[in-house]
Structures are given as structure tokens and as C-alpha cells.
Amino acid sequence: MKIAIGADHGGFELKELVVALLREEGHEVLDKGCFSSDSVDYPEYAEKVCSSILDGEAERGILICGTGIGMSLAANRHHGIRAALCHEIFTAEMSRRHNDSNILCMGGRVIGSALAFEMVKTWLATPFDGGRHSRRISMFDKGFE
Ligand code: RB5
Q1: Residues 53, 47: contact at Cβ < 8 Å?
Q2: Full-model pTM
């Protein structure tokens, strides 16, 4: 799968580990930065990953900041993006099955790499259930103006 990934300084270390995992698992990774632990602004990296998905360059995205909160807030301002902030495997799975999440957000200062790896693997492997969930998504996916 083609996966865009981005992080700020709070998520940089975990992002590097997740990039390595994804490549080991045979995915094509579009690494949108950041590329060091120097302080940066997370909305810039959320924008890069969201654009990659909305332009059709990537199928899914992963965003990591210190808590995952800033990335999820910024990403969900983009119409067509369904970014799920998850800290464990159950919600990562359900965000695919019920919400068709196209971005997984994680907190680099919240979870360890072993849990993050399991969440990412589950999230990538889980299909959308469709049905009634498609109707619910269509009710908000265009945004509220
Ligand atoms: C950066 O210090 C931190 O605020 C950021 O990584 C993130 O946690 C924001 O939501």
C-alpha cells in the first residue's frame, strides 16, 4: 500500500521507527517529514499528508505528534479526511471498520513503539464494514459550513 507519513518533533522518533516497519512490511512510504527532532509546527505536516491522500498520491496516512491530538485536529479540518486518534489496538481496528479512517494519528509521547507497530499493522489490514456506516460517514464527510 502507498502510505504517507508525517510527524512533528514530538513524533519524530516514533515516525522513524514506523517508517522502517512499513518498509519491512513491503509498503511504499512517502515520508513527508519532519526529518529531525528540531521544533516544528505540526499543522504543516498534517497538511502535507492530507494533501497526499486527497490528491490520490497515497491511499492512507499516518500522523504522529507528541499526543496525536494536534495532528488529528489539524487533519480533520480537511474535507474527505477521517483522521482517528488511537492509543490502543481496539480503536485502531474500529476506526477502520466503522469510520473508514484514512489517517491514523498516534502520540509519540503516549505509546511505545511495540504497541504502535501492532496498531499500525491492524489498522492497515482491517477493511471498512460499509453498510450503515457509509451513510453515517456521508453525513459529515463533506463538512459543515
Ligand atoms: C509539541 O510540543 C506538541 O505540542 C505537539 O507534538 C502535539 O502534542 C500537539 O498536539
Answers
A1: no
A2: 0.98
| DSSP at 105 | E
Which atom of ligand 1 lies nearest, measured to the CA of 109? Answer: 8
Rounded Cα gap, residues 52 and 57, in angstroms: 5
CA 94 to ligand 1 centroid distance, Å = 25
Q: Is the CB of 6 under 6 A from ligand 1?
A: no
Tell me, in angstroms, the distance from the centre of ligand 1 to residue 109's CA. Answer: 9
Q: Is the CB–ligand 1 distance for residue 73 below 6 Å?
A: no
Architecture of the domain made up of 2-142: 3-Layer(aba) Sandwich (3.40)
Non-local (6+) Cβ contacts of 18 within 8 A are 5, 62, 64, 113, 116, 117, 120
What are the domain boundaries of the chain? 2-142
Per-residue pLDDT reduced to its tens digit, 3-44: 999 999 999 999 999 999 999 999 999 999 999 999 999 999
Active site residues: 65, 98
